[in-house]
Amino acid sequence: MTEAQSASDTGNETDAPAAPEWTRSDFPMSAEMLKALANPLRQKLVSLMRREKYVRAADAAAQLGEPANKISFHLRVLADAGLIEEAPEHARDRRDRVWAARPGSWSLGDSENPVADEALGNTVLQLIGAEHIAMVQRALAWAPEFASGRDTKVHGAFTRTSAHLTEDEFNRLIVQIHELIAEAKANHNAEAPDSRFFEIDIVAADDQI
Q1: H or E segment at 54?
Q2: Domain spanning 26-155 has what CATH number?
Q3: Other residues' Cβ atoms within 10 Å of the Cβ of residue 179
């Protein structure tokens, strides 16, 4: 994990408040990264890579219903921005180009490292928000089937809770949640026949926004 840049490093004499630990990432997103992600199709490609782990242009084109040459162009844009990289270990031969998401966590910005381009950052947030809403709608469509007993398999969760917390307590809670998810991923048996891809979004808000 890279160390967050302090306000004094940037020439700003005003001390910025320390960013919560859970906002730290392996690399903050540059304006070029934000520009690459501020595109619905490229967002879909990144989401596809999270699910499939690695993709070829032809396979991604078939899954997304887009021309292969168009997908190849957008993959190059993502690669040039440093968001994805080639995965030659999965290639069938030297001509076979396989892509995977760049390892590590991304950060849009925080109090210590403000977003590189606010307009692009807002666009990316809106696209991520749309994906979140689509996932919530899927969960809501499935939940009645589970609650009625018609579907006995667990395909997701839709739960709500609340708590009175200080800001520090809330920040520690989010860190603990991320640690639990990381532990579960590390212990996952990829060979298990019931292995599936779960999307997990964490959304919380206090009563002051």
Answers
A1: strand 54-56
A2: 1.10.10.10
A3: 11
pLDDT for 45-72, tens place per residue?
999 999 999 999 999 999 999 999 999 9
Does residue 94 carry a pLDDT above 90?
no
φ/ψ region of 53 (left if φ > 0, alpha if ψ in -120 to 50, else beta) reads left
Residue 11 reports pLDDT greater than 60:
no
Q: pTM, whole model, 2 decimals?
A: 0.79
**Residues 106 and 116 sit within 8 Å (Cβ to Cβ):** no
Domain segments of the chain as ranges:
26-155
Q: What angle do CA 157, 148, 134 make, to 5 degrees?
A: 40
CA distance 30 to 121: 10
Which has the closest alpha carbon to 156: 200, 194, 190?
A: 200
